[in-house]
Amino acid sequence: MRVQLSPRATVAVAAALASLGVAARARAEVVTFDTAHTVYYESPTRTNMFVYTPGGDLAAKPTEWLGVRAGYEADIVSGASVSTKAGPAYQRNNPAADVISTASVKDLRHTGRGGLSLKKGDVTATGNYSYSTENDYRSHSFGVAIRTEAYDHNTQFEISYARNIDRVCDRVQGVNDPPTRYRALETSAGCFTSDPLRAQRDLGVDGFQGSWSQSWTPIFVTQLVYTAQVSSGFQSSPYRSVVIGQGLRAQEHHPENRARQAVALRGNLYLRPIKAAVRVGIRAYNDTWDVKSGTVDAELEKYVLESLRASLRGRLYKQTGALFWSDDYTGGDPPLGPKGQYVTGDRELSPFFSYSLGARVNYTLRRTSAGRLLGLMESFRVGGSFDVIGFHYEEYTLGGVSVDNARAYIGSADLSLAF
Hints:
The protein has one domain (9-34, 82-355, 390-400). Helices cover 4% and strands 58% of the residues. The chain is built from two helices and 20 strands.
């Protein structure tokens, strides 16, 4: 599962801390270690997916002007996904047919990453690199960012650029075959080898982001973020087929170019009388595939004890379908039937809305005047969260059968040690 167009977490955390009225402490620690473990489970109609993601990062700051970091993360995936998608029109005309099929999914993704930061005065420059590998995907990712603070550190500006150079495994297609004759990849066996039945497709992604964080008062902070991304190359699922004729199945075929942009505004307000922070955010998105979406989210975080914080959060999301989206490419004229040369079986390109509700707790201990914790640590933090996400697909069906009970459950636990 790849998430795109996500605001940089470092800026968001800084704004959140400012909204809580937490004063910046003199950093005495030299090394920090963070580890997080996330479990994701989704089980809509006829499919399911389980993903376990362990990860860890080690960061060192040997001087005030230099920081280095390295980390590792894995995705352990198992479940079943739709491999052939048919719509209601085809099913009505072929009531005995059951062309909708699912395929078992088992995969393991490894990601290694590293980076460094250089700081001079109020300006910090960072650079990052990561490499991930899985059975059918390879990805190199590079990123650079520069951040500056002004007006007694009440204002922060940051710009960043990221470049992905990816390769996707696919089956070899006929040289003269049109996309309607393309066949889906059966398995990942033979990928990235000399297997004559396997090919590699390129995908390049360029991402740009700019943000402005502003502390208006000691208890009120806002952040404005603009993100743009341009993707070029193979953007279909190589495994997914779509019924486009009388039982004819073709590998889904997406445009090779996609440009997208998003604007997000967040506000954080600290309520001193009850030692709580309220965070509200809105986000608008559109792209050249004609997908438009809006997001509203809110969070309430409160100090339960001096070292214990708890939060409740919620999110609403709604999007339109892609320009070429259809629930049935055999259904004649739009809204069913073909809408040009592209076909998709991806429910994430259909109109839908989702909601999520979640909770999180954090317990933090810091060194006291008596000395370091256990004689070693500057601070110790442990946290956990749980979220439920519900999806409602307005048009997407499996042969006319709505995708019911489309829910996902996400649980996470994390630990942070500073020495």
